[in-house]
Amino acid sequence: MEIITGRHPGDLISELWTPNGQQMLLKDVIDQCFKPQRRNKEAEQLVATTKLAFTCLHSNPQFRPTMQQVYQALTSGRPSPLPKSYSTISLGDLIGDGHGMRG
């Protein structure tokens, strides 16, 4: 998460618990040195990697991916197509309902 956002992940996780935290757009929290194009492979990979990073933060270790699953996700080279425009993807879209996230 620190590489993706350019800041300590604890700061972002804390913000997620604010009233508007899950409404924050991914494009607004990623490191501003990285600007993927809308609906291209870079954006798809960024979304997939961020979603994977959030699953690694689940408070229950049984729901976190194994290192083998993380490796496969990062090396598969087949991110899912974006469900909507990259510029409209919120952090809430990536973490689902947020239950189980560390807070």
From TrEMBL:
Q: Which reaction does it catalyse?
A: L-seryl-[protein] + ATP = O-phospho-L-seryl-[protein] + ADP + H(+); L-threonyl-[protein] + ATP = O-phospho-L-threonyl-[protein] + ADP + H(+)
Query: What EC number(s) would the UniProt record show?
Result: 2.7.11.1
Instruction: Tell me where on the tree of life, at the top rank, the source sits.
Output: Eukaryota
Key words of the record: ATP-binding, Kinase, Nucleotide-binding, Serine/threonine-protein kinase, Transferase
GO molecular function (one): protein serine/threonine kinase activity
Q: Which InterPro entries match?
A: Kinase-like_dom_sf, Ser_Thr_Kinases_DiverseReg
Name of the protein described by the UniProt record: non-specific serine/threonine protein kinase
Gene source species: Rubroshorea leprosula
- Identify the taxonomic lineage of the organism of origin: Eukaryota, Viridiplantae, Streptophyta, Embryophyta, Tracheophyta
